[in-house]
Each structure stands twice: as C-alpha cells, then as structure tokens.
Amino acid sequence: MAKKKSEEDIRQVVAEIKHPAIDRTLVDLGIVKEITVNGNKVLVTMTLPFPGIPTQVRDYLVNSVVEQIKKMDEEVKVEVDLTLMNQEEQQAFLVMEQESWKGGI
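User: That's the sequence. What structure does it adopt?
Assistant: Structure tokens below.
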C-alpha cells in the first residue's frame, strides 16, 4: 500500500502543472484554488475564468490535475469541484493570459 501523501506533497505536484495554452501554472493562474486532504480522499477546488469554457479544455484541465495526484498514489480518491472565478480573480487571470499566451491546446 502506498504511503499516504500530505496536503503539501500534493500541492507541490499540482503546482507544477502548466496550462496548455498559457505559459503559467494552473496555481499561478488561480485555476487550482484549494486542495483538501482527508485520509484517502483529495478534494481539489478549481475555478474557471468563464462559464463557457469548451468541454475539451475543461476536461483537459481537470484530468491533468487528477492524473498528477493519482501518479503519487493510485489508491487516492480525487474529487474536483468546479466553480467560477469572481471578477477580481478573472481580471488577474486575463492579465496573466495576455502576458503569457502561447496558443491553443
């Protein structure tokens, strides 16, 4: 059985995940907002900048986080809660997007 990972271990791994079209990490962009570990369960709260994000992009972002966590411990159960950024978070995201845009998925 794999050693249970701490919240900090998971944060470090998730903090390395880059956005596919913006040269920034999901944490830098404010997309990964919160990580909570409770025993064998990990809850990741992700915030999207807009409600109309294409399904392909949304699924890619979610799957990239889930897969990285599962690489650490296959037995962990990962749940993702998707929310929308507030106006302040959205503005910060847009500034970073303009500064770091590298193109499509």
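DSSP finds three helices and three strands in the chain.
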